[in-house]
């Protein structure tokens, strides 16, 4: 029996995608599995081209942006971004709203750049986001970086800081909300993220980069991290994660078939609101994030008595509600409601929470 998987990633995949992949796995094209197909062969090259074309349609990626299929996760791009956009001792600007933007800033500093924190929400224990216009990007900064959705803390930037970044390339980590709603690509210089939340299995990192930002890599950057080199080779400078790209393409077609990004965003918001409403109406559960900055993807919550956490999780698992334990750094619970989460899964979680509160409060 399939369970409801609330994991922050690798995350639940759409059942129709899993069923199609299962049916095609032994014999995909040319009498072989996609797992066996050469990345240089015409079948897989057509598969990769279709995945890129579908990504461009869904997200409205303009012709003067390149779509790169890379490896190393978002963490790899924490280093690749400064290596491709800066020289040593350059200044970069960061908005810090949680642990992933903190990790990216630390990695950028390791690459020899000066990191300026133009906004840091530490005072709220990273349960808030900066108000628009409350920070200034220093003159000469090579880019402004932010994490659109902090997976661990359940915090989303409620706006795109394009005005604050005027004249400076805006770089955004979209890992945990990639294609969960419409995306205005032209507001950004670089958008990147791992696929394992909303777009497929682990192993694939998708980078969208404006063409004028290519060709700036430091001379000592390894070619697999050089965006220009990867773009020149259609992301096949080395063997790409073929199965991940194949599944990524299936997920993109599933998103198209279910109404596209506008419909996906409406469904995601409606599901998240149902869970937030249940938490807010309770005297037993609480969400620590200010309402304007609440994530629709990752919803952390605590129980009134932390001593009940283990019992709550055990009962949830027995009810088929899996991976609700919060990140080890913050504790509590966390329900991740990515694109493939169903209304039935959200209903089952709310019903379980209601009954647990009734019998334990």
Automatic annotation (TrEMBL):
Cofactor entry: pyridoxal 5'-phosphate
> What does the entry's cofactor note say about binding and number?
Binds 1 pyridoxal phosphate per subunit.
Residues that bind pyridoxal 5'-phosphate? 74-75, 100, 151, 173, 196, 238-239
Question: What pathway is this protein a component of?
Answer: Amino-acid biosynthesis; L-serine biosynthesis; L-serine from 3-phospho-D-glycerate: step 2/3; Cofactor biosynthesis; pyridoxine 5'-phosphate biosynthesis; pyridoxine 5'-phosphate from D-erythrose 4-phosphate: step 3/5
Domain Aminotransferase class V spans what residues? 4-349
- Enzyme class name: transferase
List of residues that carry N6-(pyridoxal phosphate)lysine: 197
Q: Which UniProt keywords apply?
A: Amino-acid biosynthesis, Aminotransferase, Cytoplasm, Pyridoxal phosphate, Pyridoxine biosynthesis, Serine biosynthesis, Transferase
The parts of the chain that form a coiled coil are none
SUPFAM superfamilies, sorted: PLP-dependent transferases (SSF53383)
Entry-linked InterPro entries: Aminotrans_V_dom, Aminotrans_V_PyrdxlP_BS, Pser_aminoTfrase, PyrdxlP-dep_Trfase, PyrdxlP-dep_Trfase_major, PyrdxlP-dep_Trfase_small
What does the subunit comment say?
Homodimer.
| Function text | Catalyzes the reversible conversion of 3-phosphohydroxypyruvate to phosphoserine and of 3-hydroxy-2-oxo-4-phosphonooxybutanoate to phosphohydroxythreonine.
**Family under the similarity heading:** Belongs to the class-V pyridoxal-phosphate-dependent aminotransferase family. SerC subfamily.
Q: Which NCBIfam families match?
A: PRK05355.1, serC_1
Its recorded name reads Phosphoserine aminotransferase
The organism that produces this protein has a lineage beginning with: Bacteria, Bacillati, Actinomycetota, Actinomycetes, Actinomycetales
From the UniProt record, report the name of the gene that encodes this protein. serC
């Amino acid at each position: 029996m399939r369970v409801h998987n609330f994991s922050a990633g690798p995350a639940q995949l759409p059942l129709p995608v899993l069923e199609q992949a299962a049916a095609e796995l032994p014999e995909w094209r040319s009498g072989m599995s996609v797992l066996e197909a050469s990345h240089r062969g015409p079948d897989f090259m057509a598969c990769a081209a279709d995945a890129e074309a579908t990504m461009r349609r869904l997200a409205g990626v303009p012709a003067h942006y390149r779509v790169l299929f890379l490896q190393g996760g978002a963490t790899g791009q924490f280093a690749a971004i400064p290596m491709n956009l800066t020289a040593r001792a350059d200044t970069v600007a960061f908005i810090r709203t949680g642990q992933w933007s903190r990790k990216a800033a630390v990695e950028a500093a390791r690459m020899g750049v000066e990191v300026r924190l133009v906004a840091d929400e530490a005072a709220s224990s990273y349960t808030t986001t900066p108000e628009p216009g409350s920070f200034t990007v220093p003159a000469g900064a090579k880019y402004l970086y932010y994490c659109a959705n902090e997976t661990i803390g359940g915090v989303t930037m409620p706006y795109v800081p394009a005005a604050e970044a005027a004249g400076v390339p805006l770089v955004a980590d979209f890992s945990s909300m990639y294609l969960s709603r419409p995306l205005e690509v032209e507001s950004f210089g670089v958008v990147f993220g791992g696929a394992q939340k909303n777009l497929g299995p682990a192993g694939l990192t998708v980078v969208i980069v404006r063409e004028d930002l290519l060709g700036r890599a430091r001379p000592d950057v390894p070619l697999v991290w050089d965006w220009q080199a990867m773009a020149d080779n259609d992301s096949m400078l080395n063997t790409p994660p073929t199965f991940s790209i194949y599944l990524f393409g299936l997920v993109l077609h599933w998103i198209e078939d279910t109404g596209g990004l506008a419909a996906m965003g409406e469904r995601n918001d409606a599901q998240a609101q149902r869970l937030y409403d249940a938490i807010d109406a309770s005297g037993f559960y609480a969400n620590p994030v200010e309402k304007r900055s609440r994530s629709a993807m990752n919803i952390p919550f605590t129980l009134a008595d932390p001593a009940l956490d283990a019992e709550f999780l055990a009962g949830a698992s027995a009810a088929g509600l899996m991976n609700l334990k919060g990140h080890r750094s913050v504790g509590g619970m966390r329900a991740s409601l990515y694109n493939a989460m169903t209304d039935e899964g959200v209903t089952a979680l709310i019903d379980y929470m209601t009954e647990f509160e009734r019998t334990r409060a």
